[in-house]
Amino acid sequence: MSAAAPDRTAVRPVRPGPPILEVQGLTMRFGGLTAVSKVSFAAGSGQITALIGPNGAGKTTLFNCVTGFYRPSDGIIRLHKPGVPPTELQRLPGHRIARAGVARTFQNIRLFPGMTALENLLIAQHGPLMAATGWGIGAVLGLSRYPAAERLAIERAKRWLTATNLMERADDPAGALPYGQQRRLEIARAMCTEPALLCLDEPAAGLNPRESDELARLLLDIREEGTSILLIEHDMGVVMRISDRVVVLDHGVLIADGTPAEVRGNAKVIAAYLGEDEEEVAAP
Amino acid sequence: MAYAMQQLINGVSLGMIYGLIAVGYTMVYGIIGMINFAHGDVFMIGAFLSLIAVLLLSMGGLMDGPAGILLVLLFSVAITGVYGWAIERIAYRPLRGSFRLAPLISAIGLSIVLQNFVQVSQGARVKPMETLVQGGIEVMREDGFVVQLAYTQILIIGVTLAVLAIFTVLVTRTPLGRAMRACEQDRKMASLLGIDTDRTISLTFVIGAALAAVAGTMYLLRYGVIDFYIGFLAGVKAFTAAVLGGIGSLPGAVLGGLLIGLIETFWSAYFSVQYKDVAAFSILVLTLVFLPTGLLGRQEVEKV
User: Is the keyword Transport assigned to this protein (chain A) (predicted)?
Assistant: First the structure.
């Protein structure tokens, strides 16, 4: 386990203040199968929280509940966005969750392949743009409020295209971009919704080591800007390097929750990942 | 030569009307992947509302010149839009999670309801209207045959092109159009980005109905005779046009409409008027057999 973790593992001080996301007793059943069972944890505000666990542990299911893709069977998911009263996400329809401040990416990329990279980012700013157009009528008539709003939207889109190093691909259809660029574009699109919490489902999957490094840097930048991140990731190098907090699931149950260093030494976690033969593995 | 020229003019103006209706079919298909079988009747409703508006305005003495026609158009578009919205609410939205054929059946049911509603409320007899716009331009003359471009035909072509231009800007340049395209490609993802997909789908039906209303008004002005049953044939022909152009493709719908209009007109002119519908529907069969994606149909984008 220690071989996977590089030298930059110093624990960052935990910022005070309420968590951005609070999950209480979350349960998700599909017919007779309980994919997630009574999971409770909190993701710190301004932190990167990683959600790890072996395949089939229920990470993506939990993610889908938080982002409104599924409606949980039971439990509470509360978003504490600074400056507004807490929102209970499990009650909201999908598009309201996005407006409440949660954005996500997918394990299998879900860009709009037929639209350009720039259009993909503008779609993410649909709410404010729509309001400025008077539901599309103003845009046709060329009313004054709309061009200003659109300029602002394009500026924000350009900022994220620059941050993700995709500026020269702005007018190419998203479906034509190479895999690594599509991954970055998905993160840029999520950021264009101006989320308080960014949820990433295996952002490093399929990336080469150099691209993984770029991704880690991008995520740290996003955190510096004040957006909290919830992350599912199998690349332990990335997880241990950038996470402030690691939550471990196995068979739908939470088995560990702590700093990367704590979780790495946790016997249950090692058992879950490597089988029951703990003695042998725990030895340095 | 002159005769062919006249048929070309007639075919284009008829094709424009089919094209406008076909756009409604193809838009709804694009966004929810289903054919709106009540769309032909929306066109019929649009024509009836135009007739009502003409009569109301004539009573008030306001029905003169282009301003009158514009008022008729706006009246018909506005109310037909409400019909489009209602069709989605009644026949489609409650069945969205249901099996695939259920909304088609409810839409066919709604189509029958609309026809019977108009039949009962407006009477079953054919409704003639006195010609509002008369005359035309003499384009050419050959051996005593005068090729005429009627003012109504100019009106149809002009209004259709203007409406399609506005519509194209709406789809390609505005946030609403982007949202419609996003819903088309991945509705769930669009919703996760904060797009109200229900409202976007509703607006798609409203816009489709508005275009059908424009077609209805044009039909009334050009042919001057309507009844409660015109929606069926026009609807099926516009559907043929949408399939020929490639269902889901907006330029394809207009192209398909033009082709169907031209084929029908030339067939009537050179072969037999009785078999003109057979010609149009043979095209549907041939397209489905030999060119299922249509002329401008998109390749299915594989979702990863």
Answer: yes
